[in-house]
Amino acid sequence: MHDPYDRPARKPPKIRSEDTWAEVRRGWEQGETAASLAQRYDVGLANLWRRRASEGWRRLRAGDPEPEPVEGWDSRARRAMGAFRARRDETRLLAEKLAEKLAEAMQGGPLHEVPLWHAGFVLEWRADRLAPEVAAADRDYMRKHAWTDEFWDQDGRLRPLFRLDEITLEANREAWREDEGIPPGKAEDWP
User: Fold this and answer.
1) 174 falls in which pLDDT band (50, 70, 90)?
2) Model pTM score
3) Which residues sit opposite 158 in a β-bridge?
4) Which of 120, 131, 156, 183 has the highest CB neighbour number within 10 Å of its CB?
5) What is the mean pLDDT of the chain?
6) What angle do CA 190, 160, 111 make, to 5 degrees?
Protein backbone atom coordinates (compact mmCIF):
# COMPACT_ATOMS: atom_id res chain seq x y z
CA MET A 1 0.00 0.00 0.00
CA HIS A 2 1.13 3.51 -0.67
CA ASP A 3 2.34 5.57 2.26
CA PRO A 4 1.04 9.16 1.90
CA TYR A 5 4.10 10.49 3.69
CA ASP A 6 6.49 9.06 1.13
CA ARG A 7 7.51 11.86 -1.14
CA PRO A 8 9.35 11.30 -4.36
CA ALA A 9 12.96 12.40 -4.32
CA ARG A 10 13.42 15.99 -5.40
CA LYS A 11 15.22 16.66 -8.67
CA PRO A 12 18.63 18.18 -8.22
CA PRO A 13 18.76 21.82 -9.33
CA LYS A 14 19.97 22.55 -12.86
CA ILE A 15 23.18 24.45 -12.67
CA ARG A 16 24.38 25.83 -15.97
CA SER A 17 27.81 27.30 -16.67
CA GLU A 18 28.37 30.99 -17.24
CA ASP A 19 29.25 30.15 -20.85
CA THR A 20 25.79 28.62 -21.31
CA TRP A 21 24.15 31.70 -19.79
CA ALA A 22 26.27 33.93 -22.02
CA GLU A 23 24.91 32.03 -25.05
CA VAL A 24 21.35 32.35 -23.73
CA ARG A 25 21.83 36.08 -23.23
CA ARG A 26 23.34 36.54 -26.69
CA GLY A 27 20.42 34.68 -28.26
CA TRP A 28 17.82 36.67 -26.32
CA GLU A 29 19.47 40.01 -27.13
CA GLN A 30 19.49 39.07 -30.81
CA GLY A 31 15.74 38.50 -30.76
CA GLU A 32 15.15 34.82 -29.98
CA THR A 33 12.24 34.00 -27.71
CA ALA A 34 12.82 33.12 -24.08
CA ALA A 35 10.84 29.88 -24.46
CA SER A 36 12.95 28.64 -27.38
CA LEU A 37 16.18 29.48 -25.54
CA ALA A 38 14.98 27.81 -22.31
CA GLN A 39 14.21 24.65 -24.26
CA ARG A 40 17.42 24.65 -26.32
CA TYR A 41 19.76 25.23 -23.36
CA ASP A 42 17.63 23.31 -20.83
CA VAL A 43 17.31 26.23 -18.44
CA GLY A 44 14.24 27.21 -16.46
CA LEU A 45 12.14 29.91 -18.05
CA ALA A 46 11.70 31.63 -14.69
CA ASN A 47 15.48 31.62 -14.21
CA LEU A 48 15.97 33.08 -17.66
CA TRP A 49 13.56 35.95 -16.88
CA ARG A 50 15.16 36.51 -13.48
CA ARG A 51 18.65 36.75 -15.01
CA ARG A 52 17.38 39.00 -17.78
CA ALA A 53 15.96 41.42 -15.22
CA SER A 54 18.86 41.32 -12.76
CA GLU A 55 21.59 41.63 -15.43
CA GLY A 56 19.75 44.24 -17.49
CA TRP A 57 19.62 42.37 -20.80
CA ARG A 58 18.45 44.54 -23.69
CA ARG A 59 17.35 43.52 -27.14
CA LEU A 60 19.81 44.66 -29.77
CA ARG A 61 18.11 46.93 -32.23
CA ALA A 62 18.87 46.27 -35.86
CA GLY A 63 20.11 49.31 -37.74
CA ASP A 64 17.54 51.10 -39.80
CA PRO A 65 17.92 50.77 -43.56
CA GLU A 66 19.18 53.85 -45.37
CA PRO A 67 15.97 55.80 -46.08
CA GLU A 68 15.36 57.10 -49.58
CA PRO A 69 15.45 60.89 -49.43
CA VAL A 70 12.12 62.52 -50.22
CA GLU A 71 13.70 64.35 -53.14
CA GLY A 72 15.31 61.15 -54.51
CA TRP A 73 18.98 60.19 -54.63
CA ASP A 74 19.84 62.26 -57.71
CA SER A 75 18.48 65.45 -56.15
CA ARG A 76 20.20 64.53 -52.87
CA ALA A 77 23.50 64.04 -54.70
CA ARG A 78 23.04 67.35 -56.62
CA ARG A 79 22.37 69.16 -53.33
CA ALA A 80 25.35 67.38 -51.70
CA MET A 81 27.62 68.44 -54.57
CA GLY A 82 26.50 72.07 -54.21
CA ALA A 83 27.10 71.96 -50.45
CA PHE A 84 30.46 70.23 -50.97
CA ARG A 85 31.62 72.88 -53.45
CA ALA A 86 30.48 75.67 -51.13
CA ARG A 87 32.36 74.13 -48.17
CA ARG A 88 35.44 73.53 -50.31
CA ASP A 89 35.44 77.08 -51.64
CA GLU A 90 34.84 78.52 -48.17
CA THR A 91 37.76 76.51 -46.80
CA ARG A 92 39.94 77.85 -49.58
CA LEU A 93 39.02 81.43 -48.73
CA LEU A 94 39.97 80.79 -45.11
CA ALA A 95 43.09 78.84 -46.04
CA GLU A 96 45.14 81.91 -46.98
CA LYS A 97 44.44 83.43 -43.56
CA LEU A 98 43.80 80.64 -41.08
CA ALA A 99 44.61 77.08 -42.09
CA GLU A 100 48.04 76.34 -40.66
CA LYS A 101 48.78 73.24 -42.70
CA LEU A 102 47.66 74.77 -45.97
CA ALA A 103 49.58 77.94 -45.22
CA GLU A 104 52.69 75.94 -44.39
CA ALA A 105 52.36 73.98 -47.63
CA MET A 106 51.66 77.18 -49.54
CA GLN A 107 54.99 78.53 -48.36
CA GLY A 108 56.93 75.55 -49.59
CA GLY A 109 56.40 73.16 -46.70
CA PRO A 110 55.58 69.47 -47.12
CA LEU A 111 52.51 68.42 -49.10
CA HIS A 112 51.73 65.23 -47.16
CA GLU A 113 49.37 66.99 -44.72
CA VAL A 114 47.37 68.87 -47.36
CA PRO A 115 43.77 67.57 -47.45
CA LEU A 116 42.98 65.66 -50.64
CA TRP A 117 40.28 68.04 -51.83
CA HIS A 118 42.70 71.00 -51.62
CA ALA A 119 45.75 69.46 -53.29
CA GLY A 120 45.04 71.16 -56.64
CA PHE A 121 44.55 74.52 -54.95
CA VAL A 122 47.86 74.28 -53.10
CA LEU A 123 49.73 73.04 -56.19
CA GLU A 124 48.40 75.94 -58.27
CA TRP A 125 49.24 78.46 -55.55
CA ARG A 126 52.76 77.12 -55.21
CA ALA A 127 53.31 76.98 -58.99
CA ASP A 128 52.23 80.63 -59.33
CA ARG A 129 54.24 81.99 -56.41
CA LEU A 130 57.21 79.77 -55.61
CA ALA A 131 60.37 78.86 -57.50
CA PRO A 132 60.20 76.49 -60.49
CA GLU A 133 62.21 73.94 -58.48
CA VAL A 134 59.32 73.71 -55.99
CA ALA A 135 56.85 73.05 -58.82
CA ALA A 136 59.14 70.34 -60.20
CA ALA A 137 59.47 68.76 -56.75
CA ASP A 138 55.68 68.93 -56.34
CA ARG A 139 55.18 67.06 -59.59
CA ASP A 140 57.66 64.37 -58.49
CA TYR A 141 55.95 64.08 -55.10
CA MET A 142 52.45 63.83 -56.59
CA ARG A 143 53.50 60.98 -58.90
CA LYS A 144 52.96 58.60 -55.98
CA HIS A 145 49.26 58.86 -56.93
CA ALA A 146 48.81 57.50 -60.47
CA TRP A 147 45.73 59.65 -61.04
CA THR A 148 47.69 62.90 -60.57
CA ASP A 149 49.57 62.44 -63.88
CA GLU A 150 46.58 64.21 -65.49
CA PHE A 151 47.30 67.33 -63.41
CA TRP A 152 49.92 68.40 -65.97
CA ASP A 153 49.57 68.81 -69.71
CA GLN A 154 51.99 67.35 -72.29
CA ASP A 155 54.28 70.36 -71.92
CA GLY A 156 54.47 69.89 -68.14
CA ARG A 157 52.26 72.87 -67.28
CA LEU A 158 49.82 72.54 -64.40
CA ARG A 159 46.23 72.51 -65.63
CA PRO A 160 43.72 75.16 -64.39
CA LEU A 161 42.31 74.72 -60.88
CA PHE A 162 38.79 73.80 -62.06
CA ARG A 163 40.31 70.88 -64.02
CA LEU A 164 42.48 69.80 -61.07
CA ASP A 165 39.30 69.68 -58.96
CA GLU A 166 37.50 67.60 -61.60
CA ILE A 167 40.41 65.14 -61.83
CA THR A 168 40.55 64.82 -58.04
CA LEU A 169 36.80 64.15 -57.79
CA GLU A 170 36.82 61.65 -60.66
CA ALA A 171 39.76 59.73 -59.22
CA ASN A 172 38.39 59.76 -55.65
CA ARG A 173 34.70 59.34 -56.45
CA GLU A 174 34.02 56.67 -53.83
CA ALA A 175 35.72 58.67 -51.08
CA TRP A 176 33.57 61.70 -51.95
CA ARG A 177 30.37 59.61 -52.02
CA GLU A 178 31.21 58.10 -48.63
CA ASP A 179 32.05 61.54 -47.15
CA GLU A 180 28.75 62.93 -48.41
CA GLY A 181 26.61 59.92 -47.36
CA ILE A 182 25.62 58.71 -50.84
CA PRO A 183 25.22 54.90 -50.58
CA PRO A 184 26.53 52.52 -53.25
CA GLY A 185 24.15 52.00 -56.16
CA LYS A 186 22.34 55.33 -55.65
CA ALA A 187 22.72 58.51 -57.75
CA GLU A 188 25.43 56.82 -59.80
CA ASP A 189 25.93 59.88 -62.02
CA TRP A 190 27.37 61.84 -59.08
CA PRO A 191 30.13 62.90 -59.26
Assistant:
1) very high
2) 0.52
3) 152
4) 120
5) 86
6) 85
